[in-house]
């Protein structure tokens, strides 16, 4: 009788223990991006880097499109 009671308790509470360990439920990978600069500031910084020769014309255009499409 003692073993049967233990088996019933185990069967009732084991699923809850597994969920707490990540064994149940769907996983969600949500990424939230927080911007600390404005689009205008990013474009000005990009222009400055381009004028100083830090980035090429091609990289400037690629990054500019990326910045503008983020809005």
UniProtKB/TrEMBL annotation:
UniProt KW keywords: Signal
Domain SHOCT: 42-68
Signal sequence range: 1-19
Pfam families found in the cross-reference section: SHOCT
UniProt cross-references to InterPro entries, sorted A to Z: SHOCT
Transmembrane annotation, as ranges: none
Protein name: SHOCT domain-containing protein
Lineage of source species: Bacteria, Pseudomonadati, Verrucomicrobiota, Opitutia, Puniceicoccales
């Amino acid at each position: 009788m003692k073993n049967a009671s233990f088996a019933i308790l185990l069967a009732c509470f084991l699923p809850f223990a597994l969920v707490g360990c990540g064994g149940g439920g769907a996983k969600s990978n949500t990424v939230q991006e927080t911007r600390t600069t404005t689009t205008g500031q990013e474009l000005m910084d990009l222009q400055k880097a381009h004028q100083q020769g830090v980035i090429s014309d091609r990289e400037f255009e690629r990054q500019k499109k990326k910045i503008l499409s983020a809005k």
